[in-house]
């Protein structure tokens, strides 16, 4: 009886192949989330609007840490974002 050399060759290939190291199980993938508001050819990131609202609040002599509640209403026909921080409302031109 003849032994098949194919089987022996396949076994030797497996032993010489090197596998890439596996990624750590606890490695986290970076998640990204962003919302854009588009209207009549303009585009604004909601993240940018939020930052500008907070900056406007600080420029009025407040601290970011003073913000307890924040609501933003985007009104594209006015090209503005109206916001309410701690019950006080104001307007931000976009």
Can I get a quick summary?
With 94 residues, the chain is α+β, with helices and mostly antiparallel strands. The chain has helices at 5-16, 46-59; strands at 36-39, 42-45, 70-75, 80-85, 88-93. It has a domain at 32-94.
Describe the structure in your own words:
The protein is of the alpha+beta class and 94 residues long. Strand 1 (36-39) and strand 2 form a beta hairpin. It has a domain at 32-94. The protein is built from two helices and five strands, in the order αββαβββ. The strands form two sheets. A three-stranded antiparallel beta sheet has the order 3-4-5, covered by helices on one side. A two-stranded antiparallel sheet has the order 1-2. Helix content is 28%, strand content 28%. The termini are far apart. The radius of gyration is 29 Å and the shape is elongated. The model has no long low-confidence stretch (mean pLDDT 83). The chain has helices at 5-16, 46-59, and strands spanning 36-39, 42-45, 70-75, 80-85, 88-93.
Features:
94 residues; alpha+beta; 3-stranded antiparallel sheet; two-stranded antiparallel sheet
Shape: elongated
Mean pLDDT figure = 83
The value of Rg in angstroms is 29 Å
Classify the helix fraction into a percent range.
25-40%
First-last Cα distance: 85 Å
Task: Map the helices and strands.
Blueprint: H1 5-16, E1 36-39, E2 42-45, H2 46-59, E3 70-75, E4 80-85, E5 88-93
Antiparallel strand pairs: 1-2, 3-4, 4-5
